[in-house]
């Protein structure tokens, strides 16, 4: 099936723009956050002040950027083979698609992430990401092929493909999900906490629902904590949520508590 015939019921230029965004979105947001992190290198908001990122670490993380091609490539295959069915981008369909894949990604990642830290096979898949103890925005791209493709790309898109057999999904909704991921993942790895402390004091723990740079930096030190994807909800529910202690903050060589 050709791309044109597969997209007969949707806006083809929109699909092509989304495919381009899936390739360029994460490198662009990583570049923006890297610039911001360098500008704030002396900020008191740095989570681990003594964390040192080596040139060698930056090189191996940068090599993983090629894996961003997996998202657009698989999505193109699924669309052109009619495995993933797209519908008109109505507000309701956009909202449904974004929320459904976001919820799936949160639940899927928590339990698979926990498995990857608890088993030899899982750790073999995941250990490349944890070569980076001191994190930076570029760490958000540092994965083995197996982890990037099976834990992220295929897990998200095959879920959407199955869902689309019952309710066609929105390409704009897919783009919104990826955009949220592109914006939050480099931030979580930035080692700089941009959220004011007062936000954590909002009623009903509203300020503590979303994950944070502080929480994920701690995960790279204590691997059995803060396993959630974009939120802390499942960590809190299953007892894996943690905040840094003074010992954690001193865990990097030369760190300043």
Explain what this protein looks like in three dimensions.
By secondary structure, the protein is an all-alpha fold. It has one domain (3-194). It contains 11 helices and no strands. It is globular and about 55 Å long. 37% of the residues are buried.
Largest sheet: none
By secondary-structure content and strand pairing, the structural class works out as mainly alpha
Radius of gyration: 19 Å
Number of domains: 1
Helix content: 55-70%
3D shape: globular
Q: Would you list the SSEs in sequence order as H and E?
A: HHHHHHHHHHH
Strand content: under 5%
- The number of strands is 0
- Specify the number of helices: 11
Could you name the ranges where pLDDT drops below 50 across 5 or more consecutive residues?
253-257
Mean pLDDT: 88
Distance between the termini: 59 Å
SSE inventory with pairings:
Elements: H1 3-6, H2 12-39, H3 55-63, H4 69-80, H5 91-118, H6 120-126, H7 145-164, H8 171-188, H9 213-219, H10 233-238, H11 246-249
Helix pairs in contact: 2-4, 2-8, 4-7, 5-6, 5-7, 5-8
Please provide a brief summary of the model.
The chain is an all-alpha fold and 257 residues long. The protein has 11 helices and no strands. The chain has one domain.
Q: Which short descriptors sum up this protein?
A:
mainly alpha; about 260 residues; about 55% helix; about 0% strand; disordered C terminus; globular; single chain
